[in-house]
Amino acid sequence: MKKHIHIIGAGIIGLTSAWYLMEEGHDVIIIDKGDLSDGTSHGNAGMIVPSHFVPMAAPGVISQGIKWMFDSSSPFYIKPRINIDLISWLWRFYRSCNASHVARCMPILYEFNEWSKQLYKSFSEDEKFSFCFEEKGLLMLYKTQHQEQEEREMAQKANELDIPAEVYTADALKSLEPDIDLEVLGGVYFKGDAHLYPNKFISQLQSQLLSRGAKFITNTEVIDMDCAGDKVKKLHLSNNTSISVDQIVLAGGSWTGLLLKKLGIKIHIQDGKGYSFTIKNANVKPNIPTILTESKVAVTPMGDDLRIGGTLELGGLSPTINKKRLSGIIKSLPKYYPQLNIKPSDVEIVWLGYRPCSADGMPYIGRSNSLTNMVVATGHGMMGMSMGPATGKLVSELIDHKETSIDVSLFNIERR
Ligand SMILES: Cc1cc2nc3c(=O)[nH]c(=O)nc-3n(C[C@H](O)[C@H](O)[C@H](O)COP(=O)(O)OP(=O)(O)OC[C@H]3O[C@@H](n4cnc5c(N)ncnc54)[C@H](O)[C@@H]3O)c2cc1C
User: Fold this and answer.
1) Does the beta carbon of 380 sit less than 6 angstroms from any atom of ligand 1?
2) pLDDT tens digits, one per residue of 234-258
3) Which residue among 29, 31, 32 is best mutated to probe the pocket of ligand 1, counting the most ligand atoms within 8 A of its Cβ?
4) Where do the domains of the chain lie?
5) Options 3.50.50.60, 3.40.50.12280, 3.40.50.2000, 3.30.40.10; which CATH number does 4-411 get?
6) What single string gives the DSSP state of each residue in 112-125?
7) pLDDT tens profile 95-113
8) 120, 163, 198, 251: most buried, per Cβ within 10 A?
9) Degrees, nearest 5: CA angle 163-169-174
10) pLDDT value, residue 356
11) From the CA of 180, how far away is ligand 1's center (Å)?
12) What is the C-alpha separation between 180 and 190, in angstroms, rounded?
């Protein structure tokens, strides 16, 4: 039966949910507080990463994070503040940094990302889409022996899960990257990963949704919701109007927890701010998307352009750009690629976005115990672009009360 669904949030999660819900014959109205031109789902590094099967909350992350806190140009930072949500998030993060949590999450993260990659592939085969989707894999480059050890261990774990991962010496890397000089000790190559140009995908998805009859309400924030019994009945909007609703999908990225709080539902999300900049028509660029592992910088060739992104700052949705951290990203480039010697003054436009980071590194996808007509989908952290289409598909299965294509128990929104 045709349903009328209001989707809050027009990022990758809201838009892919809209897409698959429309494929099932439903009507969708997408509401966003922005103008749809540039959000977290636009300027990210565009990596589609079945190779990222370890959640952010993993052993060793805390000690590394504490070291980085004392370096003003490091890739990680928490703005010190007394904030109950941040403190309870950190406590849950700490609790999740253990081997058994990682072991539970690994197979599902891999399966979910791999499924999503296949769904992107189907979009790329549709002639209405053209978003530089390429399956060239992912390179993890390292310069130090300490990092080499970590990356080799990760490659071994991957192989145990039947995920192809191969260790390359500096010399052997020339066969993968013949057109750019590398100054590294070696690298691990995950040949199963893919990448795309997120700005292109998101804007094409918006256009296709519009042409299929989806409605968009933009520059309008959902500021509150009315419930009666086990249902959300009304959305109150920032333009002083309200809308009656039948079914809703809440895909508000890093802001989702704020709305849920008004309904008395608690999820544990912090915004992991990151920056990127894009070199248009780059003369020098790697062939394969790469992570510079010591610096945690992502380098992605996107068509003729080259995007560079990094840092994760838990700063409470602050829109400021930390110049030292940005310069940390820029200065890391020539350490790995001597030809990519960019000056901070060459970077004119800096983009920022907020990764919706859950405390245990797993997304929240599902219904709460109290409300039967709302599906929540958020908390994808560093992998929201990658997991987008699979999440959209799951949302449509949940709205239709179908059996889900994968086990969603680790995505439960009521988990503590
Ligand atoms: C530097 C950087 C690099 C990244 N690289 C990658 C990568 O290579 N691969 C990958 O998989 N992921 C990557 N990510 C992460 C990825 O971008 C995010 O996980 C993903 O975009 C989150 O999508 P979303 O739809 O959940 O949220 P968003 O894209 O933030 O969308 C949420 C939308 O909801 C709207 N909204 C929120 N609250 C309301 C409200 N109350 N009323 C109306 N509208 C509302 C917001 O305006 C927003 O448009 C990166 C992120 C950063 C910052």
Assistant:
1) yes
2) 999 999 999 999 999 999 999 999 9
3) 32
4) 4-411
5) 3.50.50.60
6) HHHHHHHHHHHHHH
7) 999 999 999 999 999 999 9
8) 251
9) 100
10) 98
11) 31
12) 19
